Amino acid sequence: MNKKTNILIVEDEIIVAKDIENKLKRLGYIVPALASSGEEAIKKAAEANLDLVLMDIRLRGNIDGIEAARQIYNIFNIPIIYLTANADTATFERAKTTKPLGYILKPFKEKELYNTIEVTLARYRIEKQLQDNERWLATILKSIGDGVIACDRNKNIIFMNPVAETLTEWSKKEAKGKLVPEVFNITNSETRSMLHHPVSQALELGIVVGIPENTILITKNGIEIPIDDSAAPIKDDNDSVKGAVWVFRDITERKQSEAELHRRQQEFKALVENAPDIIARFNAQMQYLYVNPAIESLTGIPASTFIGKTKAELNMPEGISWLWEQKLRQVFQTKQENEFEFGFPIASGAKYYH
Fold first, then answer.
1. Which tens digits make up the pLDDT trace of 48-71?
2. First CA to last CA across the chain, in angstroms?
3. N or C: lower Cβ tally within 10 Å for the chain?
4. How many helices (H) and strands (E) does the chain have?
5. How many other CB atoms sit within 10 Å of the CB of residue 53?
6. pLDDT at 1
7. How many CA atoms lie within 13 A of 125 on its CB side?
8. Nearest 5°: CA angle at 181, between 175 and 186?
9. Long-range contacts made by residues 119-125, C-beta under 8 angstroms, separation at least 24?
10. Are 258 and 266 in contact (CB under 8 A)?
11. Which 8-state DSSP code applies to residue 104?
């Protein structure tokens, strides 16, 4: 028992209110105030640092206990226990909508009062922790740069974050309850064939599933967006699949960068292939990795002959091989340009300076 627990009593029968106050004090609780009406209860809740409210359902005045409880819970998030001698079905159903954490039927004994309060406070702490965790999770999902869509076991959407709304052009309100494939319409950009939806695979197989390359998302308004993503099953403590979560991102910029890089590589390749001078690439072991076609026209030696070989392996004169390896090794060590020239015999009998 927490002896610092502050409890507000809301009861319009003063004798009953005092009796409850005495019981609570004997149990070690603190009663900072009493209220006899709904209006007064709301005011006291705003003034006092309360942990719990014992609320009589039937109160005199314009605001009964149910309405007072609703406002106190919504505004101050203080747990409520209803006190009632009797309540008809309609009143009981109305009271349930205010999310009370307990009921006590009058008259009641101290032990019953104590047990109800302690169970209520424990339940409230657990629920508050769960709510805090859910808020943290919701904040994280809303803040991340990827789109997130979650669905239940039947593929009905239950959550979308703002990024997912923007990319799909479906609002969370519009999408909620719809099947994932309806909102998240994907296809292959090259074949235009519909894909076996990863969400379906995640639900069926219970594993994380990615999508193939060249997958595009077709938005609500028909815009095509290249995406990268994966779907993962949501499992309970018994490892049973209860739903799936889909995480995806717009890779338009990446695709544009890749296309631009490919274009430049092709331009550079054409430039090198048609260059009149010899252009070669080597590894750290001094082996040719690439040599352009100019080498054959200038030396009479096919370009393929050079690939994977060193100068020594190409039967170049020993002095040339040694000089070449020394100079090239300096380039690898210093990572700086190193200009030098030497000549070696070529098919015509002359020397080619390289």
1. 889 999 998 888 878 888 889 889
2. 91
3. N
4. 12, 16
5. 27
6. 47
7. 8
8. 115
9. 120/52, 120/79, 120/81, 121/2, 121/5, 121/51, 121/52, 121/79, 124/52, 124/79
10. no
11. E
Cα three-residue angle 65-68-71, rounded to 5 degrees: 150
What single-letter amino acid sits at 285?
Q
pTM: 0.53
CA atoms within 13 A on the CB side of 272: 12
Judged by average pLDDT, the poorest of 45-49, 66-70, 280-284, 327-331 is 327-331
CA atoms within 13 A on the CB side of 222: 0
Structure letter (DSSP) for residue 153? T
The distance of Cα 30 from the centroid of its chain, to the nearest Å, equals 44
- Residue 90: how many CB atoms within 10 A of its CB? 8
Q: Is the peptide bond before 233 cis (omega within 30 degrees of 0)?
A: no
Query: In angstroms, rounded to a whole number, what is the distance separating the alpha carbons of residues 11 and 122?
Result: 24
CA distance 315 to 43: 100
